[in-house]
Amino acid sequence: MPNFQESATAVASYQEKRDQPVKYLLRDGELVDYDDARLHVLSTSLKYGVGVFEGFRAYWSEDEQQLYAFRVIDHMKRLIDSMRVVEIDGPQDIEELSEQLLGLIRANGLRSNLHMRAQVFVDSKDGKPEDTGPSTVFMAAIPMGNYFGGTGLNVQISSWARLSDRSMPPRVKSIANYQNGRLALLEAKRNGYDAALLLTEGGHVAEGAGYNVFMVRQGRLCTPPATDSILEGITRDSVLHLARTELGLEVDIRPIDRTELYSADEVFVCGSAAEVNHVASVDRTAIANGQAGEITRNLQELYRQAVIGKVAADRNWATPVYAS
Ligand SMILES: Cc1ncc(COP(=O)(O)O)c(C=O)c1O
Q1: pLDDT score recorded for residue 150
Q2: What are the required cofactors (predicted)?
Q3: What is the whole-number distance in angstroms between the Cα of residue 211 and the centre of ligand 1?
Q4: Where along the chain do its domains lie?
Q5: pLDDT of amino acid 19
C-alpha cells in the first residue's frame, strides 16, 4: 500500500506513476478510459471558462476494510446549486449522481484515501459565451494523501481581493473563480509562504485559495459569515457542527479583521482537500507558538473520526462504498 502521509508534491508524482492504476473516469454516467476523457477545444467551457465542479474525499478504514465517501449528497446538492446560479443545463438527480460516483470507485476497485471530482462543462462546439448546454458531466476518483503535508502553514494575506457576489459569486464552485485564488497562491509562493488568505473588497477576512478559515480569539471560535465572499464550505459546516455538538462551543459567525488573526490564539483552515490544517503564522506573525492549539487539535481528531462515520454518525455523512 502507498504511504498516504506523503507531501502534496509526492502525491502528484504518485498519480503520475499510478501505482494503483485508475482505469476509468465517468462521462455522463458511462465509464471511459482515463486517458480518453476529452472536451472539445472550441467548447464554451474551454473558450470562456464556463463550468462548475465539486471536490470531495473518501477515506479508507483499515479496521473495517471499508471505504467511506464523505458528504456526497451535500456535494452533489452544491453542484446543482452552482449549475443554477451560472446557468448550465445539467442533471438534477442528486441520488443518481451520487450513485454514479460510488459506482465509479467500485469499477476502479479503489481501496485507499481518495479525492473525487464531479465537473459539469458546456460542450457546445464553436460555443458562444451564453450557451447553457449541451452539458457534459465528468467524474473522477483518484488516490490522494495529505494536501498540505500535515504541517503548520505560513500564510500570507494576499494583495488580491477575494472576488465578490457583485462580480463572480464566490458561493458558486465555478472553475473561473479559481483564477482569483490561483493569483493569490502564486503571489504567496513567490514570497516564500505556503498558502494565501484573501480579504473581501471591504477588507474583512474572507477565505483561502481552496479552504475556509477559523480563528480562536479571546476563547471564542470564529469564522467569517457566508456573506463575506466565501464558498460556503461543507467542511466549514462539518466543523461548525462538531464544535457545537462534540465540544459544546459557541461559535461566532461574524466579520473578522486582518489584525484579529495576528493576535488570535489559534488559526486553522479547512476544506475537503485541505481537511483541518493549522496555521503557524500569518504575514510572518506567529500564531501562539506556531503549534496547533487545543481546539484545532480536537477538531482535527473529531473530523478524522467523522469522515469514517465514528463521530456524528446520526448525520449519515460517511457513506460506505462497498457492500460489507
Ligand atoms: C475557494 C474555496 N473555499 C472553501 C473551500 C472549502 O469547501 P469544502 O469544505 O466544501 O471543500 C474550497 C474547497 O474546495 C474552495 O475551493
Answers
A1: 76
A2: pyridoxal 5'-phosphate
A3: 5
A4: 8-143, 153-306
A5: 56
Please tell me the distance from the alpha carbon of residue 195 to that of residue 197, in angstroms, as a whole number: 7
CA 222, CA 254: separation in Å to the nearest integer? 7
CATH code of the region 8-143: 3.30.470.10
CA–centroid distance, residue 231 to ligand 1 (Å): 6
85-111 tens-digit pLDDT: 999 999 999 999 999 999 999 999 999
163, with CB counted inside 10 A (0-12, 13-18, 19+), is: buried
For residue 167, how many C-alpha atoms fall within 13 Å in the half-sphere facing its CB? 10
| Low-confidence residues of the chain: pLDDT under 70 | 1-20
Architecture of domain 153-306: Alpha-Beta Barrel (3.20)
pLDDT of residue 184: 98
Take atom 14 of ligand 1 and give the residue whose Cα is closest: 210
Query: What end-to-end distance do the CA atoms of the chain give, in Å?
Result: 21
> Among 137, 143, 133, which Cα is nearest to 26's?
137
Q: What is the position in ligand 1's atom list of the atom closest to the CA of 272?
A: 11
Atom of ligand 1 nearest to the CA of 54: 14
Q: Which of 148, 163, 211, 228 for mutating ligand 1's site (highest number of atoms within 8 Å of CB)?
A: 211
Tell me the pLDDT tens digit for each residue of 289-324: 999 999 999 999 999 999 999 999 999 999 999 997
Which residues are catalytic, by number?
A: 173
The residue count for the chain: 324
Rounded distance between C-alpha atoms, residue 177 and residue 160, angstroms: 13
pLDDT at 21: 75
For position 324, what pLDDT does the model report? 77
Q: How close is the Cα of 233 to the center of ligand 1, in Å? A: 5
Ligand 1 surroundings by CB, under 6 angstroms: 55, 181, 207, 210-212, 231, 233-236, 271-272
